[in-house]
TrEMBL record:
Membrane spanning residue stretches: 62-80, 120-138, 150-168, 180-199
The name this protein goes by in its record: ER lumen protein-retaining receptor
Gene Ontology terms describing biological process: protein retention in ER lumen; protein transport; vesicle-mediated transport
Cellular compartments annotated: Cytoplasmic vesicle, COPI-coated vesicle membrane; Endoplasmic reticulum membrane; Golgi apparatus membrane
MF terms in GO: ER retention sequence binding
Family as reported in the entry's similarity comment: Belongs to the ERD2 family.
Keyword Cell division carried by entry: no
Gene that encodes the chain: Kdelr3
Keywords assigned by UniProt, alphabetized: Cytoplasmic vesicle, Endoplasmic reticulum, ER-Golgi transport, Membrane, Protein transport, Receptor, Transmembrane, Transmembrane helix, Transport
Gene Ontology annotations for the cellular component aspect, listed alphabetically: COPI-coated vesicle membrane; endoplasmic reticulum membrane; Golgi membrane
Record-linked PANTHER family: ER LUMEN PROTEIN RETAINING RECEPTOR
Pfam families in alphabetical order: ER_lumen_recept
Amino acid sequence: MNVFRILGDISHLLAIIILLLKILKSKSCAGISGKSQILFALVFTTRYLDLFTTFISVYNTVMKVIFLICAYITVYMIYVKFRKTFDSENDSFRLEFLLVPVTGLSFLENHSFTPLEILWTFSIYLESVAILPQLFMISKTGEAETITTHYLFFLGLYRALYIANWVWRYYTENFYDQIAVVSGVVQTIFYCDFFYLYVTK
């Protein structure tokens, strides 16, 4: 494992912790897209089904479990515990616009036509667009709390570090996963506009 992947995982975890602490501290889900959080929970669920079939390392297993638990706690906070503070009116992105093409693409373009592989591919494609409801919500309301922008910054940093991870692996291990790399680049592009606003503000 290389330093870019470790830093990427830390940035990803930090983003999720920042979001959870924001919700718990303020007792509010204002400005947070519940739809994006549902998509991320779906991403982790479909990607980490190999927890039941394959052991890679203690680090790998612990991180997967933490991401799954945090994703479902976040969804619970938004839709159950603090649902009265959730801005459902502005969280209006149509999820079928993402889920239908992502599902179709995962059946058409994958490494092997097996249930686990299709679900893993689905998770990779879905993660690349899962942030769109959040970005759509920010563009619709024209505002975002500072803590929400920090969350988005660290998510974007995670993706950028993972691109560095893939470059490193290509040159040191001759490893290249076209599905993961293309999806990661697409996802990072979605964050570029946000990064510009984050830095300038």
